[in-house]
Amino acid sequence: MSIKSVKLYHYPLSRSARVKFLLHEIYGEDFETVHMEMMKGAGMTPEFLAKNPNHAVPVLDITYQDGSEQTMFESGAMLLWLADAYPEKNLAPSPSDLEARADYLQMVMFGSSHMDLALWEIRMNETLLPEGRRSEVIAKHYRRKIEKEIAPQLEARLSKHDYICGDIFTAADCITVQNINWARSYGLCISDIFKAYMKRIKQRPAFLQAYADSARFGG
Ligand SMILES: N[C@@H](CCC(=O)N[C@@H](CS)C(=O)NCC(=O)O)C(=O)O
Prior knowledge:
The protein is an alpha+beta fold. It has 2 domains: 3-91 and 208-216, Glutaredoxin; 98-204, Glutathione S-transferase Yfyf (Class Pi), Chain A, domain 2, CATH 1.20.1050.10. The chain is 53% helix and 10% strand. It has helices at residues 16-27, 46-51, 75-85, 98-128, 136-160, 171-184, 192-201, 205-210, and strands spanning 3-10, 32-35, 59-64, 69-72. A 4-stranded mixed β-sheet has the order 2-1-3-4, covered by helices on one side. Helix 3 packs antiparallel against helix 6 and helix 4 (98-128) packs antiparallel against helix 5. The N and C termini lie far apart (38 Å).
């Protein structure tokens, strides 16, 4: 069954930007985006909770050619699934290339779990939680983890190759880039290797399209 259309529920600079980046790589501008006023409770409406009980973006509504519909609510799964749905776009190694595929799946999962979690703990403990419930110890622990463990792993890859899984851009770059952007907003991942990677990525029209709304963050 092939895809007829997709609709992304999105908030600028959030985890939905990962998916928006890939959607622009696949469709150009030919997909629908719903700007979600997340800071004003848009995630808590009954209509949205029916799509994602976790009240978070991204959410992806999919309509198939036969008219049937489906909804997804995990960014990593969306990236993997979309890249596989359009093999002709060459955004993921083929499942038959076991070695490249293992590395690619690992980097998408690393981005959506290990690195995402570290960034989230910093955000929670430095800004999101009410002041009395924040932990400087936890924030520092995850800052150190990114600085001493995560960033060096990414740098080792990016010093050898143009992209996170080699010399070909993949959906794994969509999540890596969003995490690096997020880390940079905390003064992390700022070495020349990351700078050069971001410069390469910024040459992609899909990246510029995906992040064109960044100024709306916080609104
Ligand atoms: N694991 C989910 C997490 C999504 C998530 O936490 N999104 C944040 C924005 S970055 C959100 O919408 N939070 C609103 C809330 O939790 O109420 C994914 O990666 O898709």
